[in-house]
Specification:
Layout lengths: L5 H15 L8 H15 L4 H9 L3 H12 L10 H21 L4 E6 L5 H12 L7 E7 L2 H9 L1 E3 L8 H7 E4 L2 E4 L1 H4 L2 E5 L15 E6 L8 H14 E9 L13 E5 L2 E5 L30 H18 L98 H13 L3 H14 L4 H13 L3 H14 L4 H13 L3 H14 L4 H13 L3 H14 L18 H16 L5
Parallel strand pairs: 1-2, 1-7, 2-6, 7-8
Antiparallel strand pairs: 3-5, 4-5, 8-10, 9-10
Length: 589
């Protein structure tokens, strides 16, 4: 491991905080060392002090963007996402072991994007507890960062990083060493570590239709749509028919990729290659890697505590009969978000709204507008020994539009629907101006799925739009804690600050978003609006031109939902050109 002084690491951490909003505490200096040991040989620098000077000097921004994603390899933990590991332990892995033994082959698992190894070691512990021998298992663990892979191969972890391993597992699978624990060789024997770039067109380490299970969690959130779809093609081809894909709770293939089936396994939604899909085919050669990037919340809060806070909030609101806040209902019905104000063609974001109580429910006119969603299949016959638990696969359920009771309360929305569909229902309510119902729906979704980044960001936007600023800030902080390189949290935080008239804060947030993602056209457009409000027309002109110029690059859809925000290249181009034309009519100062 590379040696770097605490002074250098502190200066590097200060630089990351200033440029990207990423807060690295001394506990995270291990990840800084890993990133330094990866990037310094690439740029031909041998001393950390000289590399820091290069990052801080002219032209250092590009290298800093390459350095940033490597810093977050330490943002992982053993048995991360309890619901998914419960499904793995109780249903998925027992079934895979039984099936592989019956077919006289190894269980084949791939931990794609394994970082420093906590995920594959967690899987290996469960397999060992199920009685599977290391020679019965082919557990491949890969990551783009070769320094992280080497650290994972050594299997040494600080006591703090082992906090989520129970004492019995620590005693069985690890031995104490200085400042932490080391995995025993009997556990390391289950795993083979290697480097792998997930954006390459062919996986030379993985055969077609060879895998039972792929774990690729909290990785694709930083990829653009073409990269995600190409990667899903390759994953689909690598899995056996019936093989499973686990993504992170912040990631969904809803309206992105439809060749997997979605099934429920012990409360966790996972993707499956259809059993009837017997064709063995190489994936299309399409790649477009996409960098994402970070930041850390001041307030430490786990997804579970966030869900508990929401649960308490819902209970308080229900007890007071105050799920709807603000003005009494008008005869015309619910108040819609303020329409964009046209100022010589200039599109403004809606001002915060005070939600009104919706009118009594009546028959709906027109179609339901239901969105397409992944297929959920009926339960299939058992393929394993009866004593082994197997996945519970739900029957397909039609999209249900929630109704209101006579007292105006919003009933619980269907829990069996995938999280992305439940969120889509709330977004439709938002679009209709029914903000109380939208907030209630997203809050309840997050009680069940506290790590769903799309829902967290949407809830923050809903709080901001309805004037609940402290709650909006807490929710955005939760998104940043969950994904330190979340560009959307910076964008929506900037929008909330802009609406509140806090222009310096809005400028800071949007500047961080654009440092992390310089080609994000909507970020340049929003920053231009901040400059306009700050009476800086020349800076506004420059940012509007930047927004138009960045449209030559593919623009990815943002996670989270915000009404009236230009979301297509055409809409952004049109809004920026109108605004620029209006500014050009004003004299330069």
């Amino acid at each position: 491991m590379l040696t770097a002084s605490n002074k250098v690491l502190q200066q590097l951490a200060a630089l990351l905080l200033e440029r990207a909003g990423l807060k690295i505490t001394p506990d995270g200096f291990h990840s800084l060392r890993l990133a330094l040991s990866t990037r310094m040989p690439v740029v031909g620098v041998e001393e950390p002090e000289k590399y820091l000077a290069q990052l801080s000097g002219p032209g250092g921004e590009e290298e800093l963007r390459s350095f940033l994603p490597l810093v977050t390899v330490g943002h992982t933990e053993f048995f991360r996402d309890a619901k998914q590991f419960r499904a793995l332990e109780k249903s998925v892995l027992p079934e895979l072991v039984t099936r592989a033994r019956r077919e006289m082959r190894k269980v084949s698992v791939w931990s794609a994007g394994c970082a420093t190894g906590e995920e594959p070691y967690s899987v290996a512990m469960v397999l060992a507890e199920l009685g599977a021998l290391s020679l019965e298992v082919d557990l491949l663990a890969t990551d783009l960062n070769l320094a992280a892979v080497e650290a994972a191969r050594q299997g040494r972890f600080t006591s703090r990083r082992c906090i989520s391993i129970g004492p019995e597992r620590l005693k069985r699978f690890f031995r104490p060493v200085d400042e932490g624990y080391e995995a025993l060789s009997t556990l390391r024997d289950y795993i083979r570590f290697d480097g792998q770039n997930l954006a390459v067109p062919v996986f030379d380490k993985v055969g077609l239709s060879s895998l039972d299970l792929i774990l690729c969690r909290n990785v694709i959130i930083y990829f653009d749509l073409p990269t995600i779809r190409g990667l899903m093609d390759r994953f689909l081809s690598a899995l056996r028919p019936g093989g499973l894909l686990f993504l992170g709770y912040s990631e969904s293939l809803f309206k992105v990729y439809d060749r997997f089936e979605m099934i429920e396994v012990d409360g966790a939604f996972v993707y499956r290659r259809p059993l009837a899909d017997k064709a063995i085919r190489p994936p299309p050669l399409r790649i477009t890697p996409y960098p994402g990037e970070p930041e850390v919340a001041e307030r430490k809060q786990t997804p579970e505590s966030f869900a508990a806070d929401l649960r308490k909030r819902i209970q308080v609101e229900s007890a007071s009969g105050a799920l709807t806040r603000g003005t009494p209902p008008s005869p015309q019905g619910p108040a819609a978000p303020a329409a964009p104000r046209a100022v010589k063609g200039h599109v403004h974001l809606p001002a915060p709204v005070t939600p009104a109580t919706p009118p009594p429910v009546g028959p709906r006119a027109g179609g339901s507008g239901d969105l397409a969603r992944p297929r959920i299949t009926q339960e299939l016959p058992a393929v394993s020994a009866p004593e082994v638990a197997r996945p519970r696969i739900t029957q397909e359920i039609p999209t249900v539009t929630p109704t209101r009771s006579a007292t105006g309360e919003v009933p619980a929305w269907p829990k069996l629907l995938p999280p992305a569909e439940r969120l889509a229902m709330a977004v439709r309510k938002m679009a209709q101006g029914d903000f109380p119902a939208a907030i209630a729906g997203v809050e309840r979704l997050l009680v069940d799925e506290p790590s769903d980044l799309d829902a967290i960001l949407t809830l923050g936007n809903l709080y901001s739009l309805t004037g609940r600023i402290p709650e909006a800030r807490d929710t955005v902080a939760q998104a940043i804690q969950r994904e330190p390189l979340c560009v959307e949290a910076r964008v929506f935080g900037g929008v909330a600050a802009l609406q509140a008239g806090k222009l310096d804060e809005a400028r800071s947030e949007l500047s961080k978003a654009l440092f992390l993602e310089p080609t994000l056209a909507i970020g340049h457009y929003l920053l231009a609006q901040v400059y306009e409000r700050s009476q800086e027309p020349e800076s506004a002109r420059r940012s509007y031109r930047n927004a138009i110029a960045q449209l030559r690059f593919p623009q990815r859809p943002l996670a989270g939902h915000y009404p009236e925000m230009p979301d297509s290249a055409d809409a952004i181009s049109r809004a920026a050109r109108y605004a620029l034309a209006a500014l050009e009519e004003q004299p330069l100062r």
